[in-house]
Amino acid sequence: MTEELLQKGHLAKEASRKLACIDTQTKNNALLKIAEALILHTEKILSANALDLQAAEEKGTRPAMLDRLKLTPERILAMADGVKKVVALPDPIGEITKAWDRPNGLKLSSVRVPIGVIAIIYEARPNVTVDAAALCLKSGNVTLLRGGSEAIHSNIALMEIMQEAAYAAGIPEGSLNLIADTARETAVELMKLNGIVDLLIPRGGAKLIQSVVQNATVPIIETAAGNCHVYVDSPCDTDMAVSIVTNAKVQRPSVCNAAETLLIHKEIAPVFLPEITKVLREKKVELRGCPLCRSIIPNIFPATEDDWETEYNDYILAVKIVENVSDAIAHINRYNTGHSEAIITTDDTHAEQFLNEVDAAAVYVNASTRFTDGFEFGFGAEIGISTQKIHARGPMGLEQLTSVKYLVRGTGQVRG
Amino acid sequence: MTEELLQKGHLAKEASRKLACIDTQTKNNALLKIAEALILHTEKILSANALDLQAAEEKGTRPAMLDRLKLTPERILAMADGVKKVVALPDPIGEITKAWDRPNGLKLSSVRVPIGVIAIIYEARPNVTVDAAALCLKSGNVTLLRGGSEAIHSNIALMEIMQEAAYAAGIPEGSLNLIADTARETAVELMKLNGIVDLLIPRGGAKLIQSVVQNATVPIIETAAGNCHVYVDSPCDTDMAVSIVTNAKVQRPSVCNAAETLLIHKEIAPVFLPEITKVLREKKVELRGCPLCRSIIPNIFPATEDDWETEYNDYILAVKIVENVSDAIAHINRYNTGHSEAIITTDDTHAEQFLNEVDAAAVYVNASTRFTDGFEFGFGAEIGISTQKIHARGPMGLEQLTSVKYLVRGTGQVRG
Questions:
Q1: Of A309, A344, B100, B290, most Cβ neighbours within 10 A?
Q2: What pTM was estimated for this model as a whole?
Q3: How far apart are CA B21 and CA B114, in angstroms?
Q4: Count of CB pairs separated by less than 8 Å, A with B
Q5: Is B348 on the interface with A (CB under 8 A)?
Q6: What is the C-alpha radius of gyration for chain B, rounded to an integer number of angstroms?
Q7: pLDDT tens digit string along A107-132?
């Protein structure tokens, strides 16, 4: 175990007892001070970021990745604004979620408490450092952040600025932590820090998520793999179907709630497939279809088993013609990752069957899968989208960063 | 991967899609049929149990363990009664936990759904086979049970009887499963059955729990380790304190919510320690105390660091004299396992500080820790007591065996 991890871990655990008891006003004030400090120290952040960018350029990093890494005064302003928005959200801590009495006179209640120490392992984007710290602080959780090596100078600068501002504003020391050691082995040690880490959330690509699933012995929440489907039923409003399929595929193909497979009812396919093919090809989307699709439009690439399983995150869409809504549901439940699934239909019975039987975090009728998002759901924030079924499913806001504690008030009761 | 595990796993996953849509009446009727069948097939169960008992006796198993393994007509009746009680509990599935509209016209709701496939790894007691199956069935979850080798004949008989009764009553085949292969390697494979097992709950001793924590790659809920404390404050009602400490220690020392360490305020110790020592020694409890304790009662055994950490599950109690409530809280937060903690006090400020600052699933004022239990809390059932902070904390009833799904109804909305 590295010295840094062990030391920060123990201080984090200690701090978590104190932070759990800090009032909303102190937390909000600290968040405002953090927002101010980020803007005030723009120069420091940009200098650190320049070191990261230089190293990345020397390594021949792709322009898209460089752009994710790059900070500008505008982006720093946007991070600070993000922190201010967290101030405006209601504090979930201390909420009494239930209160009841027992026949023996015991008075029970369950109250929302922080989870404790939340570790987050993430990749290149330095804005996650600020986002995650703000959401955890507001929900009374201590953060133990481990960002990628590409952004290490930026992350250290951001963390120093946040720590200074927060601790001066009454937040217990040790509440905000960044693991500066970016070795892979250290990340694996963090995944096994039982007794200190109460929850680990990975934020990044499939490889990172898989490494966490395989290695972690602390509780985790799996996030973000999204093999999402849109099913165009018969009968449906085909104009609406074109609009939704196009939006779900091309509005932002790189994200987890973008559509990867289009399913089409066989009766509507002869009309709908040519129409959607024309629109998507204009948007530079490559289609890969089942044999039935290719009997309608021969120059569609053939789809293989792999295509049904793949989250392209790109301008590619797999297309399959299905018998009916039950067939569509069976395909989805076989291949999906439990993220977001949509049906386009004008038949209420089909809509209800789809809502009931599809196994996913979010199931849509006549709307784009792109809405699965903490902000679009109205949660005001998001630390990730859970694709597992325990603790939190779908977009995770502040409430999903809490646990409960049972308080029991008696007058001398003993068990008989 | 063993053939049996893979085959049952896949059928379980398929069945979980169907069982999720089965109505309450069908599930309740199946549970009643299971209860009837258990009684009807008492002879079959007892014959199978006799094989387990014989094997255990030949291996020289301790009488206490033999007793846990043994079934009698009365115990079978009690199991059947337990199943009938689950019928009377409200079905959590389908409950709309929240519904709201967004400014763009999307109508959102979150609805309770089953978790899916729940694996349970447990030790000798065959009644867990029936308990767990009944609770999972009522909450729409498919069970994948893996009991200990000691009870394998009993478990197979119980499972066959339950399957026959349930499937004849309309429960989808594959909803109730027992892994007959009791090899340790098979249990480890079950812990890594990602994509099939949605949640794994270990029920058993510390060794089993640790094996699951270390090996599992599927989501788990840690249960049942309980290093529980009672803190006797100054001022307090010392008669009440004697009654509660005695109850928490000796009413059933082998269980996870029994007290393991007694903390006493230094001002009350000279009076209280001799009093409680007398009572506990009459009950055959061995005390192990800090140096201050031994300065009051010299013939108390000295406590070591180990004693503060140990869950004895036996007639032993560690005793420590503390400065004040803050000192007691610090000791508890350092050594406890997050289960159940109690303060005995007549000072409301101390009580509130204890409730707020102690980090545990259940925190008590003037009552015994022994009440941390699904039945005592009024949940009507219990599948275990969670000592982790995500998904469920404390006693887990039917509600804790559910997940949520977001349903989103639109009229053609796309994201801008």
A1: A344
A2: 0.94
A3: 9
A4: 199
A5: no
A6: 24
A7: 999 999 999 999 999 987 899 999 99
